[in-house]
Each structure stands twice: as structure tokens, then as C-alpha cells.
Amino acid sequence: MTYRRRAVDDELDEFLGGMPAILLDGPKGVGKTSTAKRRASTVIALDVPSQLQIAEADPDAILDGISPTLIDEWQRFPPIWDAVKRNVDDQEKDGVFLLTGSAYVPDAKIHSGSLRIHELRMRPMSLPERGVVSPTISLGALLRGEKGVKGNAIDFGLREYVKEIAASGFPGIRNMPSKLQSAELGSYLTNIVTKDFVEAGYKVRKPAALLGWIRAYAAATSTNISFEKIRGMSLPGEETPKTKITAATHIEVLKMLRIIDEVPAWLPGFNFLAQLAQAPKRHLVDPALAVRALGLNAEMLLNGEQGVLKLEDQGNLLGRLFESLVTLSIKVFAQTHGATISHLRTRRGEHEVDLILETEDRKIIGIEVKLSPTVVDDDVKHLLWLRNNARTEVIDLIVITTGDTAFRRPDGVAVIPLALLGM
């Protein structure tokens, strides 16, 4: 399979020149190993029993290969983390290390990698990384305050977006025929329950219950409903304390495995925004996983079907899945530019902004997402409210759509089809 360059490749190229150790962190199947191998002169694969045995015998000696050294699936032998740290601290050595795997291992006694091991998140592919669009607008330029937005996406409409929502951004899945994609995504979800939890040190006593919880979480995509409500949707009528504890464990492990990738609430710390809600927006790492968990495919989504579990008061599922696709792409772009991503909602729900991008110097861009090719005044009212009330510099306001043309409205809000937005 031909390698497609990813946004994280640029970060790796930059950081490898100045950082002695980098952890490339992300969910299984996202492409961490393939990306890291392109830069490694020595590969230590700890999922290979013979190499694991050598590492267990002498974790420091196994790191003496030609640099850069890739340690794949490092979490299978957590002491290797400390061995890397010792090598980095040794001023007489100049090795460079790449680690792939989880950023967190339960109950493992490892020291912090702060100032020694830089963590770099890798997510499923954004639309430009998939090679299906040709962006004309740079998020980086917008973050710098540039106002030009232009371009047309006449060949990329709702049907194409729905196809991409269902096709996945996992490189090994997305190019399969649609039926195989669905089967592979189903296997991915099953493996989380039957294999990944076990590897993480947790025994799943009721696999069907965990799959039910993931299904309920998928139904909550792009909402900020509580985990308690998600738990109730997955196991109606079961209210025992044990169930609550089990649900908390599910959440912890799914976050650790990078399957849950939420958008936190924006908390700027200004008193005038003390009324902001603090719950995060719920997202699985890839909206295709939500589609599969709900028993759907692209055609079913286009026909308006809501899946095996429906939230009555949270709007159209397809609109929320499109928001999740937008969120995935913007997370990839924002990381490249050192920006953080959050969302805004007042406690009573009077005002909501789907995404807030914040630069290191605390300037922001407000983003609304609309599953529509057109934008009317009502679609921008919360963005205009943000501009009038933020008490920090609002660099720009954007509505991301399924339309075919990028332009600026008279009120200054940029209207940008997702297919035209890139790094």
C-alpha cells in the first residue's frame, strides 16, 4: 500500500532535529508504526517475542543500535520507557528515539517523560490526508489573521461527505470495498472488547455490555450529554453502584486506548463567562466507528436512518456525524499549528459555538458546523455573540458547510466548505 504523507510527518521532521525522544501516540491501526519506520534506522518491535525477551534481559543494551531507534509497542514492556529516559539523560550519548503505542499503561511504575520524551498525537486521516480533496484555504493562514477565503468544491457534496464519514480515516480500512470496510470496522470494535482491554490489564466480564456502552456513546456523538445518561442508554433499568464503577473503568480504558477523543469545554476563566457549561463534547476517534457501532452505512445515513439507538432530543444524527468529521480534520490541522480545540455552551443553552480554536497567545477562532450548503443569518448568531462578548481577540468566525463555494458574508463571517479547508 502506497504511503500517504500525514500532517504529523511535518511535526516529526521538525521535532526529530531538536528532541531526543518522541512518543507517537494514537489508536491502533492509525498508522503510527508505518510513519515512524520511515525515519528509523533501528527497529525494536516489542510485539515480537524474541525482541521482547532481549529487552527484558537488558533494556539499556537493546537501545545501542544505530539512531534513530524505533521502539514499537513500547507499552508491552514499560521499563523500556525508563531506559529511554536514562539514555536521554546520559550526556555522552546522542541517540534519538521514537516510541509508538499507548501514552499510558495502567499500574505501570514509570517516571514522567517531561522534558525528555515529547508526546505527539496521531489521529485518523483528515480529508486532505485521504487524498480526496484539494484544499484552497489554510487554517494556519486564518490563525495568523489572514482573511482571504476562496475556492470551489463543485465535485464534493453531501454524498461524498457521507461516504467519507462511513469509510474511516484509518489507512488500512478506507480503501477497502464498502462491505469489507463495514466488516473490518466491526472487527475493530470487537477487538477493543476482546483483546485491547485484556492487553491493557482489564478483564471484561460482560463483553455485550461494553459493546452496548460504546454503541450508546456513538449515539451521543457531538453532544455533551452526561456519562450517566450514556450508561442508562446502554443498560436501561440497571442502577447498581457496581455498574457505575464499571462504566468509569470503561471510560478510563477507552480514553487510554485513544478510542474516545472528546472536545473539552472552553473555560477562559473570565467572570463574565462563568455561566459556561463544563461538559465535553463526545466523539469517538473516527466517526466511522460510530456509524458501524450504530449498525449503519453510507446509504442508510443518506436515507435518514438513525441507527439501532436514537437520541430523540439531540438533532439529526447525520449532522452530528458531519460535525465529528469536521472536528477530526480540525484537530489534525490545529495540532500542526500549536492551537487547542474546545467548544462553548452556556449552562442554559442560550448560546453554543461548536468549536473554539485558541492560539498560544489566547486569541480565538469561533467555528460553527452546518450540514447544509447554504448559510442564513440564524446560523451565525452565536458566532456574532461570541465576537461581541469574548473579551479576548477573536481572529475570525467561520461556518463550515457542505456547500461548494468559499466566501465572506457582509458581517465578516467566513463560509468555508470542509473540502476546501486544509492545514
Q: How would you portray this structure in words?
A:
The protein has 423 residues and is an alpha/beta fold. The protein folds into 2 domains: 7-121, Rossmann fold (3-Layer(aba) Sandwich); 127-422, no CATH class. It contains 15 helices and 13 strands. The chain has helices at 7-15, 32-37, 49-57, 79-89, 127-130, 139-143, 158-167, 178-199, 207-219, 227-234, 241-256, 287-293, 298-302, 317-336, 381-389, and strands spanning 21-25, 42-45, 69-72, 97-101, 117-121, 137-138, 340-345, 352-358, 364-369, 394-401, 407-408, 414-417, 421-422. The strands form 3 sheets. A 6-stranded mixed β-sheet has the order 7-8-9-10-12-11, with helices on both faces. The two termini are 24 Å apart.
Provide a concise account of the structure shown.
The protein is an alpha/beta fold. The protein contains 15 helices and 13 strands.
DSSP E strands, number: 13
Q: Any idea what the radius of gyration is?
A: 22 Å
Q: What is the percent of helical residues?
A: 25-40%
Strand order within the widest beta sheet: 7-8-9-10-12-11
Unreliable runs: none
Strand content: 5-15%
Structural class, judged by helices and strands? alpha/beta
What is the H/E string? HEHEHEHEEHEHHHHHHHHHEEEHEEEE
Counted by DSSP, the helix tally is 15
Distance between the termini: 24 Å
Whole-number count of domains: 2
- How would a textbook summarize the main sheet? 6 strands, mixed
Write the layout of secondary structure elements.
Layout: H1 7-15, E1 21-25, H2 32-37, E2 42-45, H3 49-57, E3 69-72, H4 79-89, E4 97-101, E5 117-121, H5 127-130, E6 137-138, H6 139-143, H7 158-167, H8 178-199, H9 207-219, H10 227-234, H11 241-256, H12 287-293, H13 298-302, H14 317-336, E7 340-345, E8 352-358, E9 364-369, H15 381-389, E10 394-401, E11 407-408, E12 414-417, E13 421-422
Parallel strand pairs: 1-4, 1-5, 2-3, 3-4, 6-13, 9-10, 10-12
Antiparallel strand pairs: 7-8, 8-9, 11-12
